[in-house]
Batch of 3 targets.
Target 1
Amino acid sequence: MSTLEQLAAWKIRKWMPWGGSYPSKPATQESVARIESALKFKVPVDFVEFSRLVHNYGVWFGSIGEDYASHNHLLVLNEAFHQAEDSAIALPEHWVLINHGHDGDCDCFDITAGKDGEYPIYYVNVESPGAPQLLASTFKEYLVKLG
């Protein structure tokens, strides 16, 4: 069993109680292409595979499947956070939101620092702006650090 598969099995169990509140479909070639075109970055391969392995990954991440109208879809979330009514709290375009809290907390790929389809993930807070904090250098590292 690969490291990603082990992480997936662990996350499925950990996130089970909240799985129904955050709908998410597994990624498809079409959904990934649509996201990549709209957000102008390459979705990490491990994120795509994780979405296929963990049916309830929407508990932590925006959906990258074909459920485009979902309130939890990556495109819907990024549109909301990039075009916030208050421009002081809008995320800059180079941050691709993958996880958000309801108190301004955002975990984002920094797509200006990507290499080989991987991007560092930073914590930023749109309600209390400060220096971004590096959380992980890759998506897989981020999964490990989630605990």
Target 2
Amino acid sequence: MNQQGLFGDPSPSVLSAQRPDTSAAQSTHTWFFALRPAIEDALRIHAVATALLGETGVSGKRIDPDRLHVTLELVGHDVDDATVDAACRAADTIRMPAIEARFDAIMTFSAPSGPCVLLGGEGLDDVRALRTDLAMAMADRGFSPSRAYEPHMTLGYDPRHRLPRTSIEPVRFAATEFALVKSYIGLSRHEVLRTWRLGSPES
């Protein structure tokens, strides 16, 4: 497993890094930066996920294709406009080429809801690099990013069936932008507020 701390130092295990954020318990909205596959990639990943989860006995709630994503960094829960603006100004500084996200494993994280996720090793190094740049830019503007980060894509939730980390055939998608997303908690709805292009303007 290739897990990386925010500034390159050792970070806790994946399981301990995925403790639920209790500050979100009474919130109505969450803002976060994310990589989102294009719709054709999202539909393909959703089909692969359905097959994988069926083969492994994982049932429960599935994530719809339009909500599949890789979280880069949390902005906050029920934040004000000034906080969102500061996060956007941090994102404005990011200069990176388009990247590929490649997952090669599936497992269940330890949260009580039983999130079943895609993970990866070297195939997610560019995602880690993007997140590090974004987190450092946000830290410069008063945010407090976690030092531990493990990129993943949640496929569904099943508290009854938990998978150990299991290798799979690679699942990949190209990312040419990242987005600021507003999540409506409890409503299974994501709203993309703004996007930032990865790559040169001519690419």
Target 3
Amino acid sequence: MSQKEMLFRCSAVGNLMSEPKLVADKKAGKLSKTAESYLNQFIFEYKYGRRQNFSTKATQKGTQTEDDGIHVLNMVMKTRYKKNTERFNGDYLTGEPDIIGKDMIIDIKSNFLASTFLTKDSIDNVYKWQLAGYCVLCEKKKGAIAYTLNNTPLDIVKSEITSAYYKNGLVDLTDEDKAKIALNHIYTDKHIVDGNYVNGFWDYAKDYLGIFEDVQVPFIEVPIEKRLRYFEVEFTDEDFEKLDTQIEKAIKYIETNYPLI
């Protein structure tokens, strides 16, 4: 693969936009250490075909519950958005936005736990620049992040229970222990059956997870409007110019360092 075919993923653009810690480096227009580290890995992946598949339980949940997140957004915002499945490639960027609206891009971010969801009071900087990349590719000027709190897929919940078992010194967990772990990942009793949302997910989850006793752990539904935090951003020409400038710096860095890695 030639250097001309190397495209920056919009999801990673935030690495390029991070600023150097030293004031002198900022004034000199240097890339940050974070950006350089990302670019070194970027070069290595393309040059030697060793792309790392970064995956955690949180990223797995995010990928597996995108449709749930779109459902939450549509129900709360009274919209009818559908998942985009087209990947866009530009001169230097590549990306697949979750939702392409008439005049904006929307990306769904499914939080792993309520504790992280509740801290969301604005668009994280890395997500802002991800949106900016999508807007460049799709010729939009407005973007939004929809943080959603969805039920965690049960295979991941089971993995969480297994982890707790090992942390507990290989001592079997009680059904009540398992139920409490599951409750931290299940926020609504509704799930999809034959294309429709119906109640009964908590009972289904207990059966799937092997919780057979009549545990005294009440299930309290989290209202759907409490499971969405939505923030918009409108990009300026200055924002796009800043993105272009950083990409130009990144390209020069690659040209210089490609032979050295």
